[in-house]
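Collaborator request, handled under Task 6.
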Amino acid sequence: MKSADQVVVAWGNNGKLMQRDRLVLELISKHNIQPHCLGITKAGYPRHPLYVMCKKQPVAY
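Structure tokens returned to the collaborator:
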């Protein structure tokens, strides 16, 4: 089994396309995983890494 210390979600505002954001969040919640992000957009989505300063640390999403 593979594992990670942290799962970072980062799809930006377009993650809502075809409800993919909800599907991913449902999947990781079934495994009791707390998602993290590098910031949140004005619309409430996890920021895409292209639009985040390199020193930004992940926070709970």
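The cover message to the collaborator said: "Residues 36 and 61 are 5 Å apart (CA to CA). Strands lie at 7-8, 35-37, 59-60. Please let us know whether this matches your experimental observations."
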